[in-house]
């Protein structure tokens, strides 16, 4: 326990990620089994002693320390376990040597509500203040020392020179003290069996698109839904639902774990059914509806009826014993499309691919999408295998959280195709100074989507009624209408008189209520320049 | 170095058992007349002598327990203190205090109004003293700051029997239990040895803590040069003049990184996280202070190696000292007085907190 206590304190005081990694890796390398496995579980909140409650510690201290002195000390220190570790009276009689982590775990795991207090006290008597602190943190499951599960796995991989993604994958089948995992990593034993267990497989993640330009011949586009990303696993008659971080959330969504009967690992978005969000009836309800279901350990019948869950499928990783992850996205997609008809339609549908030929088309489709359950667009390289983590150049996410600026409408142009009878192509500008002191408008961008058909009619009428000049298909309008323009980013540009160019601008709202001189100035837009 | 002590000077405590038996039999039922000593917000005032103890502002006549700046302000008409304290004040303010009057340990000075003041070692820093005040057979001890642990840089605390014990309470919470200093020094040396390519930068209060830390390192067999921040140099020089061996000290300024690697550097706590430390080879940040007992305090200062080393009495020393001195009344000047008051109440010891201003939580 002393080495574990020193590790805990080292992690508390070390600020840098690399420093923490080095400390933990060194501990894992130099500590024998099963101590290191229990320690790892304690540090990553993988240990739980139901018989030991926060009140158990308080009760022990109540018997030993005056309540006023306890309160003053607790207020000063700010942490119950630390206060208790410092106030614990040194035992008068000599004690057995400090317990190992393993001994402490075994003693506490075997405790009942009735015996937990005495067992904890006996252990505390054998430790110094730092040891008591580490023990109390371990016993009450409240480490919170800034060590994520991910960091622990990276340290594990670093300690033994193994691949961290493989650690991630194998980890989920193991329970503390992870002896098989250490045997594999430290002693070269074969990896623990992963295929026949309902394990979590690390997710493939996307990078933000930002300024990247992708070719839609190479990338497929798909909606990104506003639910929670899940993995549904079924193998050997067992099913599990995992969250993005690999937490088992099966208990919160029993209808999902009961719905999959094909041996498979599926990647999708967990959503709750509802019809009020603009989509078709039977579509996804808002994220708020899903929130009703999250974090519940048990689910009532009413919950199941009011907020039925389903999974909108993105991908298939394993199917009937075959690992599909090495295949390209298109091949996996074909397998997924063939699988979906075999699944319960009440519980599964497939996230449709968006038909768009260029990024501009896609931007327009994205801007028009009024379904609140859409968070943005995913772009997936058609030939990319399913690899864990966030790899450069394979998947991108293009979110719908634009920048906004108020501009003044300056010119309008007739559209093409079915819009040829409307003025549907709008040029807008910002003030180059104080409009009340004679500043001028300089054009900053041009947009031809983002509005509804109703809004288009309104804009067309406005243009016709406020025209001050005509240049062929273009009309110049008086400087009276404010448009709230959404855009992804803005850049310095020599091509425009304003010196600025917007990426994917679209008409977000018509601000007929706002006087034109209150529209934004160039300096505001300039401050948003990304590079 | 300092005069030998004998109990004959000021009387050893008698039969103090620490069992909470209350005021000693001598004083049982006797009313104390303490009108000649008055706690004021800016210090303890002795009206018959028109003198103050550790006043927070300039006064006509001041008795100063020790050289820390919150106790030893400048500008008094007359300053009465030990020779070392006066030397420290002289160093700090550039000139010897006006009307300096040296009183050595064990010696007394007669003030106006029939008050006699005797200076007794407090074990806090070089020159630190408790002040025993006597008038009409009544005895009051003002501890200033004190500790009970041995310290190679100053004379040890002497318990003095008294009616009123006026104590500090800087670490007056039961969570403060300072470990043996040898353990902390061993951790410091182990860290240093484990990182020969780096250095350990220790933040330590420039008066007292820094010199004690260095002297303890020497005692533990560490004889390599120790590098000093500029703010430390003059005080270390003063300690040497007073006969304290600190081994080889070198200024850190202008020294190449390679030369400092593998060594200890001592700086004031305020310099720990400032730009100054960038000149050092990847320093491991340590701090020597009683506050380091509490993790959150250490983390607030970005300390990687907290060393629980204090020049103040910890909780056990505070309470054991009260029990040993066994006064009729305990007054508490500064620190966490609420908990110490509670302890006195639990042990049936009359006590009161004095609302003193101006004393700081030293970086101790
Ligand atoms: Zn002091
Ligand atoms: Zn003080």
From TrEMBL, chain A:
<dbReference type="InterPro" id="IPR012309">
    <property type="entry name" value="DNA_ligase_ATP-dep_C"/>
</dbReference>
<keyword id="KW-0436">Ligase</keyword>
<keyword id="KW-0547">Nucleotide-binding</keyword>
<dbReference type="Pfam" id="PF01068">
    <property type="entry name" value="DNA_ligase_A_M"/>
</dbReference>
<keyword id="KW-0227">DNA damage</keyword>
<keyword id="KW-0479">Metal-binding</keyword>
<dbReference type="InterPro" id="IPR016059">
    <property type="entry name" value="DNA_ligase_ATP-dep_CS"/>
</dbReference>
<feature type="domain" description="ATP-dependent DNA ligase family profile">
    <location>
        <begin position="302"/>
        <end position="432"/>
    </location>
</feature>
<keyword id="KW-0067">ATP-binding</keyword>
<dbReference type="InterPro" id="IPR012340">
    <property type="entry name" value="NA-bd_OB-fold"/>
</dbReference>
<keyword id="KW-0131">Cell cycle</keyword>
<dbReference type="GO" id="GO:0003910">
    <property type="term" value="F:DNA ligase (ATP) activity"/>
</dbReference>
<keyword id="KW-0235">DNA replication</keyword>
<keyword id="KW-0233">DNA recombination</keyword>
<keyword id="KW-0460">Magnesium</keyword>
<dbReference type="InterPro" id="IPR036599">
    <property type="entry name" value="DNA_ligase_N_sf"/>
</dbReference>
<dbReference type="InterPro" id="IPR050191">
    <property type="entry name" value="ATP-dep_DNA_ligase"/>
</dbReference>
<keyword id="KW-0132">Cell division</keyword>
<protein>
    <recommendedName>
        <fullName>DNA ligase (ATP)</fullName>
        <ecNumber>6.5.1.1</ecNumber>
    </recommendedName>
</protein>
<dbReference type="Pfam" id="PF04679">
    <property type="entry name" value="DNA_ligase_A_C"/>
</dbReference>
<dbReference type="InterPro" id="IPR012310">
    <property type="entry name" value="DNA_ligase_ATP-dep_cent"/>
</dbReference>
<keyword id="KW-0234">DNA repair</keyword>
<dbReference type="InterPro" id="IPR026333">
    <property type="entry name" value="ATP_dep_DNA_lig_pp_1105_fam"/>
</dbReference>
């Amino acid at each position: 326990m002393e080495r574990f206590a020193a590790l805990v304190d080292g992690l508390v005081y070390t600020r840098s990620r690399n420093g923490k990694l080095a400390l933990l890796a060194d501990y894992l390398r130099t500590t024998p089994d099963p101590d290191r496995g229990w320690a790892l579980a304690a540090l990553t909140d993988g240990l739980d002693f139901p018989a030991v409650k926060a009140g158990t510690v308080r009760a022990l201290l109540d018997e030993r320390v005056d309540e006023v002195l306890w309160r003053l000390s607790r207020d000063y220190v700010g942490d119950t376990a630390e206060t208790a570790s410092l106030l614990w009276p040194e035992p008068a009689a000599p004690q057995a040597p400090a317990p190992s982590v393993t001994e402490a775990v075994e003693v506490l795991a075997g405790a009942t509500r009735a015996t937990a207090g005495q067992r904890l006290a006996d252990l505390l008597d054998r430790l110094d203040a730092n040891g008591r602190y580490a023990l109390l943190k371990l016993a009450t499951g409240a480490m919170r020392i800034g060590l994520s599960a991910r960091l622990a796995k990276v340290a594990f991989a670093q300690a033994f020179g193994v691949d961290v993604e493989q650690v991630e994958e194998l980890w989920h089948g193991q329970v503390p003290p992870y002896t098989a995992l250490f045997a594999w990593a430290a002693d070269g034993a074969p990896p623990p069996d992963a295929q026949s267990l309902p394990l979590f497989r690390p997710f493939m993640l996307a990078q933000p698109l930002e300024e990247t330009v992708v070719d839609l011949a190479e990338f497929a586009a798909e909606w990104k839904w506003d639910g929670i990303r899940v993995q549904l696993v079924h193998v050997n008659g067992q099913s599990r639902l995992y969250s993005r971080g690999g937490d088992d959330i099966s208990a919160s969504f029993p209808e999902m774990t009961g719905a999959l009967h094909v041996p498979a690992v599926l990647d999708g978005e967990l959503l709750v059914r509802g019809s009020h969000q603009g989509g078709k009836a039977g579509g996804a309800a808002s994220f708020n509806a899903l929130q009703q279901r999250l974090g519940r350990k048990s689910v009532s019948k009413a919950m199941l009826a009011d907020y039925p869950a389903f999974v909108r499928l993105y991908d298939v990783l394993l199917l009937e014993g075959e690992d599909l992850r090495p295949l390209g996205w298109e091949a996996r997609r074909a397998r997924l499309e063939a699988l979906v008809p075999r699944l319960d339609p009440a519980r599964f549908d497939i996230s449709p691919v968006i038909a768009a030929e260029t990024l501009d088309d896609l931007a327009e489709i994205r801007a028009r999408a009024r379904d609140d359950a859409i968070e943005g667009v995913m772009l997936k390289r058609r030939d990319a295998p399913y690899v864990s983590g966030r790899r450069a150049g394979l998947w991108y996410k293009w979110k719908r959280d634009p920048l906004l600026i108020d501009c003044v409408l300056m010119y309008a142009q007739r559209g093409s195709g079915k819009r040829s009878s409307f003025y549907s192509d709008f040029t807008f500008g910002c003030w180059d100074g104080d409009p009340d002191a004679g500043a001028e408008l300089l054009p900053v961008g041009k947009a031809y989507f983002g509005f509804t058909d109703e809004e288009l009619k309104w804009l067309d009428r406005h243009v016709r009624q406020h025209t001050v000049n005509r240049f062929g298909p273009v009309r110049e309008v008086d400087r009276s209408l404010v448009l709230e323009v959404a855009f992804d980013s803005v850049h310095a540009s020599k091509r425009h008189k304003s010196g600025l160019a917007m990426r994917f601008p679209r008409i977000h709202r018509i601000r007929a209520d706002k006087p034109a001189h209150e529209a934004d100035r160039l300096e505001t837009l300039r401050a948003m320049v990304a590079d | 170095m300092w005069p030998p002590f004998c109990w004959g000077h000021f009387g050893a405590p008698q039969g103090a058992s620490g069992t909470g038996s209350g005021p000693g039999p001598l004083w049982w039922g006797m009313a104390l007349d303490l009108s000649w000593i008055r706690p004021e917000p800016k210090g303890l005032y002795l009206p018959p002598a028109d003198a103050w103890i550790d006043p927070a502002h300039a006064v006509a006549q001041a008795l100063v327990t020790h050289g820390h700046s919150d106790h030893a302000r400048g500008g008094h008409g007359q300053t009465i203190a030990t020779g070392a304290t006066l030397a420290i004040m002289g160093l700090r303010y550039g000139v010897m205090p006006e009307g300096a009057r040296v009183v050595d340990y064990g010696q007394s000075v007669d003030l106006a109004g029939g008050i006699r003041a005797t200076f007794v070692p407090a074990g806090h820093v070089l020159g630190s003293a408790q002040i025993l005040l006597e008038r009409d057979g009544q005895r009051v001890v003002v501890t200033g700051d004190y500790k009970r642990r041995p310290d190679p840089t100053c004379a040890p605390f002497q318990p003095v029997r008294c009616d009123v014990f006026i104590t500090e309470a800087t670490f007056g919470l039961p969570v403060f239990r300072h470990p043996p200093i040898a353990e902390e020094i061993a951790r410091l040396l182990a860290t240093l040895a484990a990182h020969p390519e780096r250095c350990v930068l220790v933040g330590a209060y420039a008066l007292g803590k820094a010199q004690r830390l260095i002297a303890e390192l020497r005692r533990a067999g560490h004889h390599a040069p120790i590098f000093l921040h500029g703010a430390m140099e003059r005080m270390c020089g003063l300690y040497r003049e007073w006969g304290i061996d600190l081994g080889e000290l070198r200024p850190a300024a202008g020294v190449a990184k390679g030369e400092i690697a593998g060594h200890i550097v001592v700086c004031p706590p305020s310099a720990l996280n400032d730009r100054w430390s960038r000149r050092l080879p990847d320093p491991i940040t340590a701090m020597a202070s009683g506050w380091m007992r509490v993790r959150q305090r250490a983390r607030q200062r970005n300390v990687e190696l907290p060393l629980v080393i204090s020049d103040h009495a910890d909780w056990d020393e505070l309470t054991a000292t009260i029990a040993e001195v066994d006064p009729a009344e305990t007054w508490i000047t500064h620190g966490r007085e609420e908990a110490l008051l509670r302890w006195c109440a639990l042990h049936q010891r009359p006590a009161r907190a004095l609302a003193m201003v101006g004393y700081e939580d030293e970086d101790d």
